[in-house]
Write a structure and sequence with these properties.
The protein is mainly alpha-helical and 345 residues long. It has 13 helices and 4 strands. The strands form 2 sheets. Strands 1-2 form a two-stranded antiparallel sheet. The chain has a two-stranded antiparallel ribbon with strand order 3-4. The protein is globular, with a radius of gyration of 19 Å.
């Protein structure tokens, strides 16, 4: 089987499974009482189940297992070990999120659970061992303690970035789908030699996200919930590591939500508030309150992820990528200036 046909099969299977499982997840969310009701910072209409993570997990997991049966060359003998860590950590992230969706866990237990899940990735050979120096192009290897801290920080950071991004219908799932497409193109076509078996994983993630978006696009009838957001964040973080060690590519494509998280933590800290305190001072909420339509917000976030991801794919020089990122930072500052922060609700 050719790689394009295998990738298309994986993508369509994940798309179909996610589309079929989303109505089931919606009904299950109602039955289990996992409901978001309007009030406070939530200004949607009606009662919306926040159980979309179940559909995403089912579609991605089954599709990834199916992909292992396809006759695609696998050059890394340790790929199965990393794949096990990916699926195990994704499942544990889903479970942690489901508990939060049911019981609304305090920040402490949430972060502890995320840290343990991130630490569990290490025995499965999922870790950030080095980065490329943008000035010399040579890898810069880290000592073991730094490897552990950096990996845990990265995986927890991605889980919380996607979780905080999930505030406008279709936003988090759409951005993750775009970044997954970038990782697919990188692993499948940009690497030399290409990692076709690894590239099937982000293809499955993109298909699962797009199937879910049929039910999550504005006005949404199904939300990600913490289960879906933590699951997507963990999977995306792991794929950035095992998909050719392109953490920098994901950082570029996710620069807008990552910058919002960093800015928001500093903003709340300066005002004597806990960074984990909920409110409508997230950028997407501020843009909504400033009069932006959901469609305009989605276009801005999607466009930023696609352009930044395309730059990461097309520009080979790390130095030129850094310069391009400065230009994107200027765009980001313009977006931030469109909606001054408000007092959170």
């Amino acid at each position: 089987m050719s790689f394009p046909l295998a990738a298309l099969s994986v993508f369509l299977l994940a798309l179909g499974l996610s589309t079929g499982a989303s109505p089931l997840a919606e009904r299950l969310g109602h039955r289990l009482g996992m409901i978001d009701r309007p009030g406070g910072r939530r200004r949607h209409r009606g009662e919306i189940p926040r159980s979309g993570g179940l559909a995403l997990w089912l579609a991605f997991t089954l599709t990834v297992l199916f992909a292992q049966l396809l006759p695609i060359p696998r050059f890394d003998p340790k790929e199965v070990i990393r794949l096990t860590g990916l699926l195990l950590g994704g499942t544990l992230s889903l479970i942690l999120g489901l508990i939060d969706d049911r019981r609304e866990l305090p920040p402490g237990p949430q972060f502890l659970g995320q840290a343990l899940i991130a630490l569990l990735a290490l025995p499965f050979l999922i870790f950030i061992e080095y980065v490329n120096n943008p000035l010399t192009g040579r890898p810069l290897y880290f000592p073991p303690p730094v490897v552990v801290l950096l990996t845990v920080f990265w995986l927890m950071g991605m889980m919380n970035t996607v979780n905080w991004l999930d505030g406008v219908d279709g936003l988090a799932g759409g951005v993750v789908a775009i970044v997954a497409a970038v990782l697919f193109l990188h692993a499948g076509y940009r690497l030399d030699p290409p990692q076709h078996s690894v590239a099937l994983l982000p293809a499955a993630l993109a298909g699962a996200c797009l199937g879910f978006l049929l039910f999550n696009r504005p006005p949404a009838r199904l939300f990600l919930g913490s289960s879906g957001a933590l699951f997507l964040g963990y999977v995306l973080g792991v794929l950035a590591i095992i998909g050719g060690a392109k953490v920098a590519t994901v950082v570029m494509a996710m620069a807008l939500p990552i910058a919002d998280v960093a800015w928001l933590i500093a903003y709340r800290w300066r005002r004597g508030r806990r960074p984990t305190q909920g409110g409508r001072d997230h950028l997407h909420f501020r843009l909504l309150d400033a009069g932006w339509s959901p469609g305009r917000i989605l276009f801005t976030y999607y466009g930023f992820a696609a352009v930044a991801g395309g730059i990461a794919l097309l520009i080979p020089s790390a130095l030129y990528k850094a310069l391009a990122l400065l230009v994107l930072a200027g765009v980001l500052l313009w977006v931030l200036r469109q909606a001054p922060p408000e007092t959170p609700v």
